[in-house]
Inverse folding.
C-alpha cells in the first residue's frame, strides 16, 4: 500500500444513501473508492459547506450524482457523509456537515 494512499470511510448515513441506488450501489462505491488514490478528485465547496469537497459521477437511471466528503490529511482518510443524486444534495449536506466535522476531529 502506498504511503500517500487515503482510506475512504463512509458514515452510517452515507451507507444508507447508497442503498437507494439499488442495483447500482456497487458502481457508486467504485466511483467513491477513487478517492483512495486522489482525495482531491472532487471540487471544493464554499459557504456553509466550506472545508468539504464534492465528487461527481454518473449512474444509469440517476444521472449526475455526488458524494460529499471531508479530507482529513492528519488521518489520511476521506470521510464521506452524503451520497445521492445532484438535485438538492447540497441542502441535505448542510444538515449533515456539522456531525461529519465532529467525526473528523
Amino acid at each position: 500500500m502506498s504511503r500517500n494512499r487515503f482510506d475512504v470511510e463512509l458514515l452510517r448515513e452515507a451507507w444508507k444513501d447508497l442503498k437507494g441506488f439499488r442495483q447500482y450501489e456497487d458502481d457508486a462505491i467504485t466511483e467513491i473508492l477513487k478517492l483512495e488514490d486522489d482525495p482531491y478528485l472532487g471540487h471544493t465547496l464554499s459557504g456553509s459547506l466550506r472545508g468539504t469537497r464534492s465528487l461527481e459521477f454518473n449512474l444509469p437511471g440517476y444521472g449526475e450524482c455526488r458524494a460529499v466528503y471531508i479530507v482529513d490529511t492528519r488521518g489520511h482518510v476521506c470521510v464521506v457523509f452524503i451520497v445521492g443524486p445532484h438535485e438538492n444534495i447540497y441542502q441535505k449536506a448542510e444538515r449533515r456537515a456539522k456531525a461529519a466535522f465532529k467525526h473528523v476531529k
Summary: The chain has a mean pLDDT of 94. The first strand starts at residue 7 and ends at 10. The longest helix spans residues 89-104.
